[in-house]
Amino acid sequence: MSRVTARRKTRRISPNGVIERPDSVAVEEPLELRLDGQSLTVTMRTPGSDIELVHGFLLGEGIIQTAEDVVSARYCAGTDANGQNTYNVLDVHLRTPIPVHGRNFLTTGACGLCGKTALEEVRTRTRFPLPTTSITVDTETLADMPDQLRTHQTVFEATGGLHAAGLFTADGTALAVREDIGRHNAVDKVLGWAVLENRIPANDLVLIVSGRASFELVQKAVMAGIPMLGAVSAPSSLAIDLAAESGLTLVGFLRGDTMNIYSRSDRLTVTAEVAAY
Known about the structure:
alpha/beta; six-stranded mixed sheet; 8 helices; 14 strands; Cytidine_deaminase-like
């Protein structure tokens, strides 16, 4: 956990007085992604699972479909003040090169796209349209997934400062859980896992996130062919609109035995216990 957490001095004030002590915090460092030597983007992330992160990011942007589209992904030399490699630059060599300059990324909230344009952009770009019929998940099973997600959040346990995302089977089995200081990076990491494991399109999996469901997270799920997204917190209006447009089951406020279903509720089987509640 040496690169994902750091120790910093803090002054803690409580009813018992003032205590000065070191505190464990989540590491945040830039990761520059290059395609065939050309800089594509820079994201702030928690180091770890970087190869998965870039695969998931490229999938979400429609640049790759499978792991076969990537010839190699290697760290470039990037040194700190002590001359040590920071491992903060990744160069990806694609089987079919693409022009880098002038590319637009939907994943930023500052992209300037209006709601209608953003919805149409995702719908036309995805190569894995969600099937009309796919998985069915019991609501009791779905309600248990955030608790499973939390048990895998080892860095959050130490710092309290990371988001998490997980991919689950319909019967509630956790296949991959990743943490990151950015919620979109955590999702990219598990989607990258799916790419490398040849699980895309992920028509049989459920994506669970520890925070809110923003437009960009729904976008990533749709681009990966994932039919169901569950979030511990609230969805945004545009996230709901995209889920409805794309045929994705979107569940928010997934806490304990309660949840709000915003679209495609037919993929959920409501248990008697939840229905009674």
